[in-house]
Fold each of these.
Amino acid sequence: MDCLFCKIVAGDIPARKLYEDDQVVAFHDIGPQAPVHFLVIPKKHIATLHDLGEEDKALAGHMLFTAQRLAKEQGCEQGFRAVMNCNEDGGQTVYHIHMHVLGKRQLAWPPG
């Protein structure tokens, strides 16, 4: 498989990791859009949000709670944004689901 994030999970491509367990990896974004900007990805390859199955409910919840905990650890007590893009029209560029977590600055709405 030629998936960038699968290669990070496998250790074939380096990343500045914040956290890793048996289900997820979290690492700093290579092009940060905020003072805090990291990604939470599942170790399991799931291409898009449309591909999530019933069996992935616990994994999706674990991603969200991991994002929440790491945002607090990164000093985002005043607030943060967690976003997941789906397919090209939704802004997805890497086809392995991932959650962007951004914080430590005022975030406008709508985002763009």
Amino acid sequence: MKWPFARRLAAAALLVTASAACASASAGTYAIPDQVEGIPDVVLRAYGQAAAAAAEIAPDCTGMRWSVVAGIGQEESHHGTLNGASADTAGDITPPIIGVALDGGVINDRGDTVQAISDTDGGRYDRDPKWDRAVGPMQFIPATWETWGKDGNGDGVADPHNIVDAAYAAVAYLCGTGKTNLNDPAQLRDALYRYNHSSAYVENVYNHIQEYDAIPVATAGGYGAGASGAAATAIAWATQHVGSPYVWGGQCMDPLKTIEGPRGSPTAKDRYHNCDCSSLVQQAYAAAGVSLTRTTTTQFAQDDLLAIEPVNGRGSALTDQDLAALQPGDLIYFASEGAPGAPPTHVGMYLGNRQMIHAPNSRRDIEIIDLKADRGGYYMGGGARYWGTRRVVG
């Protein structure tokens, strides 16, 4: 279990800079804002790094994002700055943040008490050989750390006083060992309650998360500026796989930069790892806890997606007027010239500024294109017919 500090901190005002022009590489890689007032840069990167590792830490956990980790960090230690503490460039917090002795005593004038937990770590983490104390920026009890602690920065030591290690551990603890979707408010609240058995704590952290969720994130290369929530996560996931070879029928479970077989004859391993057009967007949104079906035609027919129809009707050329109605993260569907099957036969994810990321065909890799410039304007009147757009909502 976790134990909160007796005195909780109000959320800091949020001042964000996340423009396409200044999006940093680290922000884009980890789907975080470029800056958030009140969160030191090294701490913000740790939140993003840990959230991005959720698929490896807890494969059955979806919907993990920087804002969830930050919600915990705000409530537990004001992002590692409580009582004048700070994180160095390696993420080590000094002076160490150590909570009250868990000795069963009264901790405030309301008569609230803490649980009595005798020492479990010999004072190694909390400097108290008699009673346990919550430690580090994420306030883990030493016994809990022994189970859930992580070596997030890869230095060979799982240290609760290091923000990267602590953020990784928080991701693991929130996700647990079962199937969890943190985009579901009820499941998110359940996860927060597991972290700290206090209804007031849950609501405080949940409110922090909602505030952070509203902040647009920077994405790789500055693509998708202004996106937030599931769309931002999906864009970040997709853009990190630019350069991975297209594989027709590929499941896109773990896109690799090379394939075993020839491009026209991929192996079973290639089909497991790499993507075709529809599995790319499917898995990108799966990273955000959103379920899309497997093929272009079934995705296009999903009634839980917002339909945006072509200005000039299905099968017409994509126009600038059509693009004006789109947002980063929207899924653009086409009937590609000569492609087999019923339309739509191709899908890409819109990034804004007339750009789209897609897995085009077996001759090309996952790429980001300018819709008007690519192949002489193929997607805007040069052969591909625009079938419509679908938007993830909610």
